[in-house]
Amino acid sequence: MERDTSLARRVARELASRRLFAYAFGLAIVTAPQALTSLGVTVTGVLRTGFLAVGLGLMVVTYVAELWVGRNEVDSSEEAGAAPTEADDDRYSTRDRLVVGLAALGVAVGVYVALTVDQLAGILFVGGALLFGQYAFRRGREGDENGDERGVVGR
Predict the structure, then answer these.
(1) Of 96, 102, 106, 104, which Cα lies nearest the Cα of 137?
(2) What Cα–Cα distance (Å) separates residue 6 from each residue in 2, 11, 14, 17, 42?
(3) What phi, psi does 70 have (nearest 5°)?
(4) Helix and strand totals (H; E) in the chain
(5) Are residues 8 and 71 in the same domain?
(6) What's the rounded Cα separation, in Å, for the pair 125 and 49?
(7) How confident is the model at residue 62 (pLDDT cuts 50, 70, 90)?
(8) Is the pLDDT of residue 27 over 60?
(9) Are residues 28 and 96 in the same domain?
(10) Are 59 and 16 in the same domain?
(11) Whether residue 11 is found in the same domain as residue 84
(12) Are residues 69 and 112 in the same domain?
């Protein structure tokens, strides 16, 4: 099977291979307005929204690139000579990836709310996102054990 070498795929592979840097940089961008405000620099609402959009946009595009290219393809391209296998891509279902993505988005929004709006509300949002992820992931695992891929156990 011939590998797809389109420009978009190569860019996605590069972005996914530097995913930790991209996520850290995105988080730094999201928290930059609060840091600037604490240093005495006035940050307008429009600028604050722009920072948030760019930071979250970078993280979302990185996550989508990681899903599209496949983590195993990225990890194996970093190792010499190892090629990804089809079986490696089946470790996590689309549902599991969606749950993790939604929980991560909830944590990011909660951190933003805690830093910019209200600390208590942000902490509650982060807690809720983590509980959602844990509940949904566990329920999916219970469904897998009972032979149901979707996690619906007939309740």
Answers:
(1) 96
(2) 12, 9, 12, 16, 43
(3) 95, 125
(4) 6, 0
(5) yes
(6) 19
(7) confident
(8) yes
(9) no
(10) yes
(11) yes
(12) no
Spatial CB neighbours of 109, under 8 Å, sequence gap ≥ 6: 125, 129
pLDDT digits (tens, 9 = 90+) for 70-124: 755 665 555 444 444 544 445 667 777 777 788 888 888 888 888 888 888 888 8
Length of the chain: 155
The mean pLDDT of the chain is: 75
Give the number of domains in the chain: 2
d(C-alpha 52, C-alpha 50), whole Å:
5
d(CA 126, CA 144): 27
What residues make up the domain containing 140? Answer: 92-155
**Residue bearing the bigger pLDDT, 54 or 143:** 54
Name residue, tokens 């996550």.
Answer: 63
What is the distance between the alpha carbons of residues 108 and 129, in angstroms, rounded to a whole number?
A: 9
Same domain, 66 and 101: no
Total-model pTM? 0.49
Say yes or no: 78 and 10 in one domain. yes
